[in-house]
Design brief:
Elements lengths: L1 E10 L16 E3 L6 E2 L2 H13 L4 E5 L8 E6 L4 E6 L11 E3 L32 H14 L8 E10 L1
Antiparallel strand pairs: 1-8, 2-3, 2-4, 4-5, 5-6, 6-7, 7-8
Helix pairs in contact: 1-2
């Protein structure tokens, strides 16, 4: 018989967070409802302006136009933000890990937020949110420029492992 074990670890903020580099690493963005658009040097500034002004409260970023592998997504309501990164969706073990922002005061809580998820059905739980808008904005721009998670924000890493009993 097999059972699934859920793993969780916490990655703290770096003492000296990485500086913002130039360039673009991630190719596509989607603001719902919409289709994937290619990210250009000009569009990075427009994306960040719309996010900072609160005109956009959701965003998907990926190198895959279909957003099926290795993507980061933002869901927010202007006061709370849930930023998550998925690596190889559907895989088990650490290869299929996912990261999210988190609020230490709500860990283990089943409290739901009022954030309207862009897919129209998912629930955003309070434990995976943060109120630190500036850190979230910096993490998004850093991801666009590097394709990596910014170490200036704390991350909660999750993965499932199937074990034989």
């Amino acid at each position: 018989m097999r059972r699934c074990i859920e793993h969780r670890s916490f990655i703290p903020v770096a003492e000296v967070p990485a500086a913002m580099p130039e360039g673009i690493s991630v190719k596509y963005c989607v603001h719902w409802p919409g289709t994937a658009r290619e990210i250009t040097p000009d569009s990075v500034q427009k994306i960040m302006m719309k996010l900072r002004k609160g005109e956009w409260t959701d965003l998907f970023l990926s190198d895959d136009e279909d957003l099926e592998e290795c993507y980061i997504n933002l869901e927010g309501d202007g006061t709370l933000y849930s930023l998550g990164y998925v690596r190889h969706e559907g895989l088990a073990g650490e290869e299929g890990a996912w990261w999210s922002t988190y609020d230490p005061e709500y860990l283990g809580s089943d409290e739901e937020t009022d954030i309207g998820c862009s897919d129209g059905q998912s629930i955003i739980f309070r434990e995976t949110t943060t109120a630190d808008k500036e850190a979230v904005m910096t993490a998004i721009e850093y991801f666009i420029r590097t394709g990596e998670l910014w170490n200036g924000i704390p991350w909660m890493k999750n993965w499932d492992e199937w074990v034989e009993e």
